[in-house]
């Protein structure tokens, strides 16, 4: 199985597609590629974009058709895939609110596709100035990430207009399995040492040592998780 | 420009073409793409075809069944549903009426089938 299909599998799983359906899709696409004898990326396009299209086509949680403003959130492992997917459904990000949600809207009359990019916010105004000639404009900042948007018409022309966009998702929280894993590891790293070094009367140094060990283990575990996931990011 | 225009046309009708390719019976992605290419529509990439198949499946216009094959990892076979058959008939008629209007307009503009007069 190619790295492309492996990545696609991960993206579809993060997008909430049940495992058996993901496996059937991946097997089917592997057969397709084998028969064309081509390269998966050439056949299906960039993996993030293709995953976004497949997920958008599913739109399983579609409900309200006329929602204009919608607030949603995703973790840093899945935010770019979700931005690609929802941008393809016509959602334009206006800003990131104080609790980290994307505040977005969709033009009910003439929806069009949007594309997004995420950059480290250390560039400041120089970063925005560098991206502006390509049509990118800032649309929000969260901790040390800055998000930019541009109408997809800039890259695909009239095809960016949406004729029949899927309804707004009813779900507004998109956390990946990786996020929950990191959270679980962090919690365990704090709780386990606290249990092992449970404080007792007159055992204050032991309690403090437990806390210290917990903190160190948590930092080490999070660093390891970060490096592992960073390697997997494109 | 010609390629862009053709892509736009195809975008508006590809779902109907996929439904039409299934009227004779079930089929799978690669064969559907081959059938469309064979009818002169040009090569339809998997990146274009599969989202359409997914949308049709979600809309209940086709049903899909995954089967393991003797060679290779397996395939998803698509079959037209009754709803898909009805949609194809209704939307197909609308497209043909649209096509007729385009032909009439182009003919009045001096274009005949087979080239300019």
UniProtKB/TrEMBL annotation, chain A:
Highest taxon of the lineage: Bacteria
Transmembrane residue ranges: 179-196, 208-228
Keyword entries, A-Z: Membrane, Transmembrane, Transmembrane helix
Protein name in the entry: DUF2812 domain-containing protein
UniProtKB/TrEMBL annotation, chain B:
Entry superkingdom: Bacteria
Matching SUPFAM superfamilies: Winged helix' DNA-binding domain
InterPro entries reported for this sequence: Metal_resp_DNA-bind_regulator (IPR052509), Tscrpt_reg_PadR_N (IPR005149), WH-like_DNA-bd_sf (IPR036388), WH_DNA-bd_sf (IPR036390)
Residue stretches making up the Transcription regulator PadR N-terminal domain: 18-90
PANTHER family xref list: PADR-FAMILY TRANSCRIPTIONAL REGULATOR, TRANSCRIPTIONAL REGULATOR RV3488
Name listed for the protein in its UniProt record: PadR family transcriptional regulator
Organism of provenance: Microbispora hainanensis
Native organism taxonomy: Bacteria, Bacillati, Actinomycetota, Actinomycetes, Streptosporangiales
